[in-house]
Amino acid sequence: MVRIVLARLTCAITVIRKIINNMNKVRADTLQQIKTRYGDDVIPLQKAIAPFMPFKGGFGYRGMLLYDSTEDKIMCHFCGLWRNQLNGTHLRTHDLTAREYKIETGINQTYGLVSIGTLLLRSKISKANYKDKKAKIVKGIKKYRKSTKGIKMSKLKKGTDMFYNRLGLCEAQLEERLIQLSKKLGRPVASRDNHALTSALRRRFGTFDKAKGFFNMRRLVKGKRITYSRVITIPKSC
To answer: Mind listing the pLDDT tens digit of every residue in the chain (238 residues)?
Structure first.
């Protein structure tokens, strides 16, 4: 009787672990999947390396803006609407400021929430009105520099999803690199196999084993195969 109860309990625990692992699995899309889902004319506005991590609870992907090259519009992560710019009027409908929107979606604070056409139009108008508004522009630049005094510009960019996407260091990209290396080697990946990848994983997760635990990878210890579960907590974004 005891053996039957223990067997059933073991089966239940195994099922629960599988469910948890599937829930925590890093889902990612390729460029082709983006085009299939949003249209052939839709591309990432920023430089990024596939795969891309979907924005949970909304639309699009973390650390990047989707751009419709035909209509010259970008998509809002929270409502999915396509607009020429995500200005304050639109963001107030989501109770967000531009700064808060960028933090939530993993976009650099120095990056504008505008389409390419709108950006070029703004640049053209600014150049045409520069002589008349030179004093006002200089005053605005001084005010901005004063508000960001002591803050390095690199700090406004590093640590965001956009920063990691550009270098191929977000969770989905690291997982894909681990999988491809494991397939190439025909065995579980060890820390000595790729020093650049190992260094990147250690910077993100602390240790190589914690990284493999987060991705639910396997490794060999004294001839025994061990599978880690996803119970590692990591800082937000990637």
So the answer is: 555 655 566 655 554 554 444 444 455 677 788 888 888 889 888 877 888 888 988 999 999 999 998 999 999 999 999 999 999 999 999 999 998 999 999 998 888 899 998 888 888 887 787 777 777 777 777 776 776 665 555 555 667 888 888 888 888 888 888 888 888 888 888 888 888 888 988 888 888 888 878 877 654 444 444 444 333 333 344 4
Say how many domains are in the chain.
2
- Residue identified by tokens 């390095």 is 152
Cα–Cα–Cα angle for 122, 116, 171, rounded to 5 degrees:
130
CB 29 within 8 A of CB 61: yes
What is the Cα–Cα distance from 155 to 149, expressed in whole angstroms? 12
Residue 213 CB: number of other CB atoms within 10 A? Answer: 19
Query: Is 35 in the same domain as 107?
Result: yes
What are the start-end ranges of the H helices in 25-147? Answer: 31-38, 88-92, 98-105, 116-128, 134-147
CB-based burial label for 116 (10 Å; 0-12, 13-18, 19+):
middle
pTM of this prediction?
A: 0.69
Tokens of 32: 């082709």
* Closest to 202 (Cα-Cα) out of 226, 182, 230, 174: 174
- Are the C-beta atoms of 59 and 77 separated by less than 8 Å? yes
9 lies in some domain: no
Last residue of a domain, one of 98, 117, 136: 117
